Each structure stands twice: as C-alpha cells, then as structure tokens.
Amino acid sequence: MSEVAPGLITVFGGSGFVGSQVVQDLARRGWRIRVAVRRPDRAFKLQTSGAVGQIQAVRCDANRPEDVAAALQGADAAVNLIGILYEQGRRTFDALHVGVSRTIAEACAAAGVARLVQMSAIGASPDSASDYARSKAAAEMAVREAKPDAVIIRPSVVFGAGDDFLNRFAAMATMAPALPLIGFGRTRFQPVYVGDVAEAIARAVELREAAGRTFELGGPAVMTFEAVLKLVLRETRRSNGLIPLPFFAARMIGSMAQLTAFVGIPPVLTRDQVVLLETDNVVADGAEGLAELGVEPTGIEAIAPSYLWRYRRGGQFSERPADTAATVQA
Fold first, then answer.
1. pTM of this prediction?
2. C-alpha dihedral over 278, 282, 286, 287, to 10 degrees?
3. Per-residue pLDDT tens digits for 224-268
4. Which of 265, 291, 299 is nearest to 159 (CA)?
5. Which Pfam family, giving just one, matches this sequence (predicted)?
6. Are 35 and 46 in contact (CB under 8 A)?
7. CB neighbours of residue 17 within 10 Å
8. Beta-carbon count within 10 A of 5 CB
9. CA-to-CA separations, 161 to 11, 19, 27, 84, 127, in angstroms, rounded
10. Residues 173/232, Cβ–Cβ less than 8 Å
11. How far is CA 79 from the centre of its chain?
12. What is the C-alpha R_g of the chain?
C-alpha cells in the first residue's frame, strides 16, 4: 500500500475524547496539526503531544463556512470528528452532524484538500428509528456528494479513559443500588478501544487505497449489554443488582431524563439513546474494518481495569466483595 507523506492536517473537533487521541497519533507520525475547535483554550493541552510548534489550536465555528475555509487554508488533509450524543437548543443532530459535515466537505473540495476522513457510527442508516443514526447517515451522504473520495469511519461504542460508555455506568453504580438492564440486556455491542480508532483514522488519512471506502470498527469481542454491566461491576468491585427494564419503560424514563438538557445538565439517558439500544451495534458481515487498515484490535478486558478502579470504594487496590452482582427479577 502507498502512503501520503505527512503535511498539514486540520482536525475539526480535535479536543474531545477521540479527537485528543487522533491528534496524538498524527503527531507521532510527523503531521503538522491544526486543531479547529470552538474553544481553543480546551485544546491547548494538546500542544504537549508533539514537538514545539507542531500542534496549533485555532478557533473555528464549524457552522460558519468562512471559519471552516480559514481552518483549511493550506491543509493537505482533514478529519471531521464533530458530533453530539444528544440535542440541546440549537445544537441539533441536523445542524452539528449534517450541516457541519456538508460545510466541511464542500470547503475541502473547494480548497483542493487531498483527503477527508469523516467520523460516523455503526448503525448509521436513513431507515433507522433513531434521530442520531439517521443524521449520521445523512451526514455521510452529504460528505460523499461534495467529496466522493472521502473516507467514512464507523466505530461501535468507543471505550477508554475518559469515555462516556463504561464511565457512565461505573458512576451510576456508585449512586444507585441497581443498574437498569435496558431491553433485558440483550443488545449486542462490539466495543472498540479509542487508541485503535485513532490509529485507524490516522491510517485512513495516509493510505491512498482508503479513498472512497467505508470502514466499520469493532473490537475483538461481541458483548451483550448485560455482559458490559457485569464487567463494570466486576472492575469497580461492586455488587449492585441488575434490574430488567423493558424498552418501552426505558423510553419513557429517557424522555423525562432528557429534560435536564434544557437547563444545561447532560442527561443520563435520552429517549433516542434507548431507541439506539434496540438495535445491535456490531460490525456488519463483510464490512471492511480494522484489519483492512492494519490495526490489531485491543480487548476491553485489557484496558477497562486501568481507569475503572477509580470507582472502587477502597481505591485501586481494594478487595472484591464476597458477593457478586446478581440480577434482580422484575
């Protein structure tokens, strides 16, 4: 496979959980990186991930075409990682996923940027019952219309220190006597390590053969939602119960919980997230993925203990309680 030589790359949304890992990986590969974010002060810490002057944080409102064009000036490649998990005011799925993705793709095409990598998600489909998944599919179509050779990256749920996946349930376990087994815990996931996602994105930028292709990223193991919760309880040394919760009940709870977004408090769960849970989140049969990008997947069991220990009552070296988590029957 032939590779593109490192030059200047603009990373939109590079200060987030996945973005910071992508920036570090690109820096190691020798790229000069322009991190385009709404709040540059939140990206200054990334400058220590590379050599002096290698990483620059710039202010960019990706809703404004002029800001996007300025952020792409002189760039050889771009990565779009901008996305939200729930809607809040004007920060809607349509605006942040579809509108911003179209703006970035059109600006890349106009500026002659050689490579664009677009972050999407497994489950993206125009036929999905989830607003989130439909918006991701619409974003993919908008990007490909403007820049047909763009690379689409679709990860399953991403885990790692600072994630909003295992950390969310671990935090809940410190406050609630039992965790909700939404949909009776049967939904399947293929959790993928954030470091592997970052490496895959970096390789997608550099490999010429990746142009125009879609890659679905999943870890080495498929796990049910119940297995994920049991992993969290085991690593946090807690014996909380698991309460089976039908999807219809979870949707009602999510509808009420998402009201906190109106007062600026991130919701623990939204109705749309419950709808997403009604469909398995695994790599499709025959889809290209980490292997085609030359990335060896990292198992969740190898990483989760390195950051879930902070939720243990006695700290990192506490003993596991004698009783283990049991499922509470409804």
1. 0.92
2. 110
3. 999 999 999 999 999 999 999 999 999 999 998 877 766 566 777
4. 299
5. Epimerase
6. yes
7. 17
8. 8
9. 21, 13, 20, 19, 33
10. yes
11. 14
12. 20
Cβ atoms 68, 62 nearer than 8 A = yes
* Whole-angstrom distance, CA of residue 252 vs CA of residue 234: 29
Average pLDDT over residues 143-171: 96
CB 120 within 8 A of CB 139: yes
Provide the mean pLDDT of the chain: 92
> In order of start, what are the domains of the chain with their CATH numbers?
8-158+192-217 (3.40.50.720)
Nearest to 111 by CA among 66, 151, 141, 152: 66
| Residues pairing with 223 in the sheet | 189
Tokens encoding 62: 């990706």
